[in-house]
Amino acid sequence: MRFARVQGHGSLSEDGQSISLVVSLDLGARAQIVRKESVPWLPFGPEGDVAWQIDQYTQETIGSVLAEDGWEPISGDSRIARIDDGLYHSESYIVRQMGSSAGES
Fold first, then answer.
1. Which is nearest to 51 in space by CA: 7, 99, 17?
2. Is 44 helix (H, G, I), strand (E, B) or coil?
3. CA separation for the pair 25, 92 (Å, rounded)
4. How does DSSP classify residue 68?
5. How far apart are CA 17 and CA 27, in angstroms?
6. What does the alpha-carbon distance between residue 4 and residue 20 come to, in Å, rounded to a whole number?
7. Is 19 exposed, middle or buried (0-12, 13-18, 19+ CB in 10 A)?
8. Nearest-angstrom CA–CA distance, 85 and 94
9. What is the pLDDT along the chain (105 residues), one digit of tens a residue?
10. How many angstroms separate the CA atoms of 67 and 2, rounded?
């Protein structure tokens, strides 16, 4: 069994219609980008909340992209350390990978 941390990061496009999204999987010894793309602004949720939008896309990534590789969420941390790096950040999620693929990279 392996554990990792997943978090989304991004910024709003100049036209306000899309988000530049990056979702990373931090395995401790190394991190990898599992999703990097421009995604549309979701037509629901809190108005103007970019961090919420990024969080929704991060959850979607866990439930689709990472799930295909056997990762499943086990907890989330809403106590996000606010980083002044010019980006918006999702919650940080802990995921685990069980089974025969746990030893594979």
1. 7
2. coil
3. 10
4. G
5. 32
6. 23
7. buried
8. 23
9. 999 999 999 999 988 889 999 999 999 999 999 999 999 999 999 998 999 999 999 999 999 999 999 999 998 776 655 566 779 999 999 999 986 554 444
10. 14
Structure tokens at 67: 């799930």
Does the pTM exceed 0.70?
yes
Using the structure block, give the residue that is written with the tokens 């910024």.
11
Task: Specify the amino acid at residue 68.
Answer: E
Is 28 within 8 Å of 22 (Cβ atoms)?
Answer: no
Radius of gyration of the chain from its Cα atoms, rounded to whole angstroms: 14
Whole-number Å distance between alpha carbons of 89 and 51: 6
27: left (phi over 0), alpha (psi -120 to 50) or beta: alpha
Assigned token pair, 94: 């802990």
Query: Quick one: which H or E segment has residue 4?
Result: strand 2-12
Query: Residue for token digits 């995921």?
Result: 95
